[in-house]
Amino acid sequence: MSNPNETAASVERPLNFLEEIIEESIARGDKRVQTRFPPEPNGYLHIGHAKSICLNFGLAKKYGGLCNLRFDDTNPVKEDVEYVDSIKEDVRWLGFEWAGEHYASDYFDQLYEWAKELIKKGLAYVDDQTQEQIRQTRGTVTVPGTESPWRNRSVEENLDLFERMRAGEFGDGEKVLRAKIDMAHPNMLLRDPIMYRILHSEHHRTGNKWCIYPMYDYAHGESDSIERITHSICTLEFDVHRPLYDWFIEKLGIFPSHQYEFARLNLTYTMMSKRKLLQLVQEGIVTGWDDPRMPTISALRRRGYTPESIRMFADKVGVAKRDNVIDLGLLEFCVREDLNKRAERRMAVLDPLKVVITNYPEDKQETVECVNNPEDESAGRRGVPFGREIWIERSDFMENPPKKYYRLSPGGEVRLRYAYLIRCDEVIRDAEGRVTELRCTYDPESAGGKSSDGRRVKGVIHWVSAAHAVRAEVRLFDRLFTRASLDDPEEGKTFLDYLNPESLRKVTGYLEPSLAEASVGDKFQFERTGYFCMDRDSAPGRPVFNRTVTLKDSWAKIADK
Ligand code: ATP
Ligand code: MG
């Protein structure tokens, strides 16, 4: 049996650029590796975060180091404990355990002291301009900014004002603290960036202790420094922020964490902005953060993805230094690979057509033996009831079949998986001419699906005994969006104009009876139709299954449409 823990991660591959950097520093004798995953708790984690988690925790693990989980919770208005809890659950589910659980808010006192230190060094000042005025005086890439009229306040005045900001003497937006760097700096982020703003707002961890909050750019680099992070890994768009983080670290003379940037994960047909995902949730376009059509980790979990498949995906995507877009098909490939090894097979008919086997005795019933997983002998076998009336898939019958159609057609013969050969004798229809039933005869000498006289019957179809079938709601998901790239909508459109109206189709499936015993989260391959996972909406006697993924990549076909 193949080991389910073995993913592509254990397969030999060339070092990525971060591994090269780490191995070089190890060779120089610098052995300590300390990374961190720094989410802002303002939404649920998505597959892009999963990439970052696998990278940060993966590097620490590979080089005997540690990885912290740090919540960059500097914005009290958008953050929530619900998000903190979901993030922890998702990281653990992916298979990682953090060394330290930290919060930027734990560092608020230290950050405040350091801000005062910068004021004392003449490197920070209180500005009375509004944030709007500050934006307007920043200049442009080609035009230098204008210095604030408050830029040259004395150290004493700055200290006094900053302390009074903290004490709550001023209203929101009345003053800010800015770093005094260079209003003509070619990097706009270094044109006296804001370090602190006034926000009379309760924080989910510090309550009402603070009414001034550090800006992300001031808090982030120093939080790394406090945790003595050796490799501060982030996505490419932060490369322009690095000089600012370095400036604070240098001026304060604190631990020099070094930032390295890699290309963020982009996936076709997938929206990965937390703000826009929140919009989908808030506007009820999806049922919640874990709606199985969402790209969040919680949604992938609910849909039936395994941690192993996501880690395999992260590994196959690799670590690039340049932006690129990955085909969603690769993620689906990974979950197929993984579930193929471990998901037990079951029979389920999703678009039923009744078959009556006229020469099978009415009162007879038998149990046929089915293999649970041809990829895994240890999964054993199970009995499945067979009887005179069965359901087959409507698409497994064609009245006027083209050549090379090996399934059922009038006069034709097909093999029922694990059971018998049947021949279609008669087609019954309703008043509208729609086929409602097939009347067939079976070959009693073909138990196990083998003909006794050696005649060849190519087609094999799945079936479910009508007398024993368990009815279930089956949710067939498709991509949430119809457009591969959502970052550059056509003129006058937004990402909401590309919602796929067919992203969810609910059908009633007829499942073999063993599935009545399944539990929420159990995963199966429904023979010939795909991988399915039992959903938490299931009720006793009324299971609900989510289709994780189809068996084959229908991608190319869809993309051509
Ligand atoms: P937003 O969507 O609001 O821009 P974010 O995706 O940057 O936020 P954070 O919580 O700040 O969310 O991200 C935590 C970490 O995950 C950061 O280090 C960030 O670089 C990384 N990350 C976020 N999105 C991706 C992505 N698509 N691919 C790889 N890493 C990502
Ligand atoms: Mg971010």
UniProtKB/TrEMBL annotation:
Domain Glutamyl/glutaminyl-tRNA synthetase class Ib catalytic as annotated: residue spans: 33-340
PROSITE patterns per UniProt: AA_TRNA_LIGASE_I
Domain of life assignment: Bacteria
Location in or out of the cell: Cytoplasm
Catalytic reaction equation(s): tRNA(Gln) + L-glutamine + ATP = L-glutaminyl-tRNA(Gln) + AMP + diphosphate
Keyword terms of this UniProt record: Aminoacyl-tRNA synthetase, ATP-binding, Cytoplasm, Ligase, Nucleotide-binding, Protein biosynthesis
Residues annotated to bind ATP: 40-42, 46-52, 235, 264-265, 272-274
Group of enzyme by EC: ligase
Motif segment ('HIGH' region): 39-49
Pfam family, one: tRNA-synt_1c_C
Keyword Signal recorded: no
EC number: 6.1.1.18
Gene3D superfamilies: HUPs (3.40.50.620), Ribosomal Protein L25, Chain P (2.40.240.10)
Residues given in the record as L-glutamine binding sites: 72, 216
Glutamyl/glutaminyl-tRNA synthetase class Ib anti-codon binding domain sequence ranges: 343-443
Gene Ontology molecular function: any one: ligase activity
InterPro entries in the cross-refs: aa-tRNA-synth_I_CS, Gln-tRNA-synth, Gln/Glu-tRNA_Ligase, Gln_tRNA_ligase_bac, Glu/Gln-tRNA-synth, Glu/Gln-tRNA-synth_Ib_cat-dom, Glu/Gln-tRNA-synth_Ib_codon-bd, Rbsml_bL25/Gln-tRNA_synth_N
Domain tRNA synthetases class I (E and Q) anti-codon binding positions: 460-535
SUPFAM superfamilies according to UniProt: Nucleotidylyl transferase, Ribosomal protein L25-like
Assembly, per entry: Monomer.
Family: Belongs to the class-I aminoacyl-tRNA synthetase family.
The protein's name in its UniProt record: Glutamine--tRNA ligase
Organism this protein belongs to: Alistipes ihumii AP11
Lineage: Bacteria, Pseudomonadati, Bacteroidota, Bacteroidia, Bacteroidales
Gene transcribed to yield this protein: glnS
